């Protein structure tokens, strides 16, 4: 249970304060209204917050025992995150944002990255600064960046909130294809809409 | 890419101020350390006397000539001088109480003979090896220290005789003899030059030889102390000079000028060194503060890099290398300016008659290295602390 959420009344089916297991390769929908801790959940599982009571384990190990270097390794090839606030570098171009991430693993060529953008219909933004893009365009760049690494889990914190149905569909197809390719699971946090995404398990906060 | 993200958007005013400060501080640091060493070394090796050592006597006045006051030193006077805080050592200079003449005794040089005045000073005032400055009856020769002006005179004689003049080193190979005598007896003792001095006008011999001569050939009169040898503390030569004036003492002018010059120049460079150290520290701190400011301004970028999987080590290294490079460039520039300074200062000293050794001092370069290492350590720690704050 995150300390700031301890004073809030949670529903009977909320996972906070209960034993919950996220099984490898499963597609999980994390459904909750605003303020129930969707982003907090993301921050906890990626090691950005430690203000919680109870125990969180990853592959059987208490995550509080992880060193900054363990977290670096996890963020590089175990868990990829598409943050709600996107976490792009507005002063860098789309290309630079993607290359900066790809440099960690060198999984893709520039051509392949450009093709991914093309699938999401923003290939023409390659040299444009991220800070000058619309929120929907930025969200697509963040999604592509999230896929530029190997992962066992993809955590998506309201990734389609600024996308129209068609664009969200294109993004879902790309994410689905990549998850299948890696045999990876994902957690999709949402305010209620599953955006047509197929999932194995729904969790509530 | 990382450098563009982390270092492109900076307000470089503070960086430029810190860089200028560090550049000036390092330049003066190397320069002052170099010249403190060189000024202290000045005169060393060219004379057997230590750099802060002078031989003094009482000024001869009309009163002395009329026998109204004495030119010799009493034991109490020596004790009083020794008590002064800036005096390291005081010893009487013992003179011969017997007749002495000095002559060449070498087939390679023409015969030359003159009556001389010999004196002895304690070993600790001399920059000669103990085993060299020793004599006892039966030894092969008496070691002696010759006034350089005596060698000049000898060379003038050689030149007038149509014989090539002799260098310091060659003079040390020439065999000489002392003839010592009184009304009842006489003997000759072999002698060799082991060093030269500009500070005294008499031949210096070991105390044991002087005792031997005085015991065996003394004319019976009491030994008077008319000269004393004083060793003053480094950089406090001005106080020694005041003492001499106060007590009506005098020394060879050249000794006083060099001592005074070394004292003043040395003190000046110590002041510059102090200011330099403060400047280097202050500019180093400003650079580190700028580093912190830069990391605070880039807190979002650093945090995001960590979130997308960049290792703290990689980001720490970027900041560390960036600032160490800046300090490195500043150090190289300071070194270049130091060489330019050195060229002009050496010229200036030489034109003023102060021929300072122009070789580089390793300590000044080591001081630069120490400043560089300290800055590198401090910048690494600052980078580490600030990056882990964002984790």
Describe this structure in words.
The complex is a heterodimer of chains A (205) and B (391). Chain A has helices at 38-45, 68-77, 94-102, 110-119, 135-146, 165-182, and strands at residues 27-31, 57-58, 61-62, 79-82, 153-157, 185-190, 201-204. With 205 residues, chain A is of the alpha/beta class. Chain A has one domain: 3-Layer(aba) Sandwich (Rossmann fold), CATH 3.40.50. A five-stranded parallel sheet of chain A has the order 4-5-6-1-7. In chain A, strands 2-3 form a two-stranded antiparallel ribbon. In chain A, strand 5, helix 6 (165-182) and strand 6 form a beta-alpha-beta unit. Chain A is globular and about 45 Å long. Chain A starts with 26 loop residues before the first strand and ends with a strand. Chain B is α+β, with helices and mostly antiparallel strands and 391 residues long. Chain B has twelve helices and twelve strands. Chain B has a five-stranded mixed sheet. In chain B, helix 2 runs antiparallel to helix 12 (362-389). The longest helix of chain B is centred in the C-terminal third of the chain and has 45 residues, at 253-297. Chain B starts with a helix and ends with a helix. The model of chain B has no long low-confidence stretch (mean pLDDT 83). Chain A binds chain B through residues 46, 48, 68-69, 71-72, 75-76, 81, 83, 87-89, 91-92, 96, 99-101, 103-104, 145, 149, and chain B through 1-2, 4-5, 8-9, 301, 304-313, 388, 391.
């Amino acid at each position: 249970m995150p300390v700031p959420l301890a004073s809030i009344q949670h529903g009977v089916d909320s996972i906070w304060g209960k034993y919950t297991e996220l099984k490898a390769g499963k597609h999980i929908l994390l459904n909750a209204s605003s303020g129930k801790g969707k982003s907090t959940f993301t921050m906890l599982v990626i090691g950005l917050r430690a203000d919680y009571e109870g125990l969180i384990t990853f592959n059987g190990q208490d995550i509080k025992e992880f060193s900054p270097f363990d977290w670096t390794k996890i963020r590089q090839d175990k868990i990829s995150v598409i943050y709600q606030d996107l976490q792009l570098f507005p002063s860098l171009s789309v290309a630079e944002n993607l290359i900066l991430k790809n440099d960690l693993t060198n999984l893709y060529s520039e051509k392949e990255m450009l093709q991914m953008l093309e699938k999401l219909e923003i290939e023409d933004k390659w040299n444009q600064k991220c800070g000058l893009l619309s929120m929907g365009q930025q969200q697509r760049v963040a999604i592509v960046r999230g896929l530029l690494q190997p992962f066992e889990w993809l955590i998506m914190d309201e990734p389609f909130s600024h996308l129209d149905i068609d664009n969200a569909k294109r993004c879902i197809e790309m994410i689905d294809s990549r998850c299948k390719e890696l045999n990876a699971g994902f957690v999709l946090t949402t305010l209620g809409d599953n955006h047509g995404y197929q999932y194995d398990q729904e969790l509530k906060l | 890419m990382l450098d563009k993200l982390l270092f492109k958007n900076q307000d470089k005013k503070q960086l430029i101020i810190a860089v200028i400060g560090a550049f000036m501080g390092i330049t003066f640091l190397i320069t002052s350390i170099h010249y403190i060493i060189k000024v202290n070394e000045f005169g060393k090796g060219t004379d057997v006397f230590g750099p802060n050592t002078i031989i003094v006597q009482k000024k001869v006045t009309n009163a002395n000539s009329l026998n109204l006051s004495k030119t010799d030193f009493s034991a109490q006077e020596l004790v009083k001088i020794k008590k002064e805080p800036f005096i390291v050592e005081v010893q009487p200079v013992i003179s011969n109480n017997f007749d002495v003449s000095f002559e060449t005794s070498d087939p390679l040089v023409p015969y030359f003979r003159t009556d001389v005045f010999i004196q002895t000073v304690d070993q600790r005032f001399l920059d000669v090896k103990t085993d060299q400055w020793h004599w006892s009856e039966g030894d092969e020769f008496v070691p002696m220290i010759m006034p350089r002006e005596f060698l000049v005179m000898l060379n003038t004689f050689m030149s007038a005789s149509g014989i090539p003049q002799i260098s310091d080193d060659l003079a040390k190979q020439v065999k000489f003899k002392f003839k010592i005598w009184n009304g009842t007896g006489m003997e000759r003792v072999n002698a060799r030059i082991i060093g030269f001095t500009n500070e005294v006008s008499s031949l210096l011999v070991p105390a044991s030889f002087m005792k031997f001569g005085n015991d065996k050939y003394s004319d019976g009169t009491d030994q008077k102390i008319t000269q004393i040898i004083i060793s003053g503390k480094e950089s406090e030569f001005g106080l020694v000079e005041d003492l001499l004036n106060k007590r009506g003492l005098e020394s060879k002018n050249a000794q006083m000028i060099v001592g005074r010059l070394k004292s003043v120049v040395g003190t000046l460079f110590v002041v510059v060194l102090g200011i330099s150290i403060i400047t280097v520290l202050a500019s180093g701190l400003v650079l580190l503060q700028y580093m912190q400011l830069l990391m605070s301004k880039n807190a979002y970028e650093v945090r995001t890099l960590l979130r997308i999987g960049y290792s703290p080590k990689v980001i720490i290294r970027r900041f560390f290398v960036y600032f160490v490079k800046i300090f490195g460039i500043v150090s190289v520039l300071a070194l270049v300016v130091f060489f330019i300074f050195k060229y002009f200062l050496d010229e200036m000293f030489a034109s003023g008659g102060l021929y300072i050794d122009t070789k580089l001092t390793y300590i000044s370069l080591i001081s630069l290295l120490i400043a560089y290492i300290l800055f590198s350590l401090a910048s690494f720690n600052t980078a580490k602390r600030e990056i882990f704050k964002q984790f």
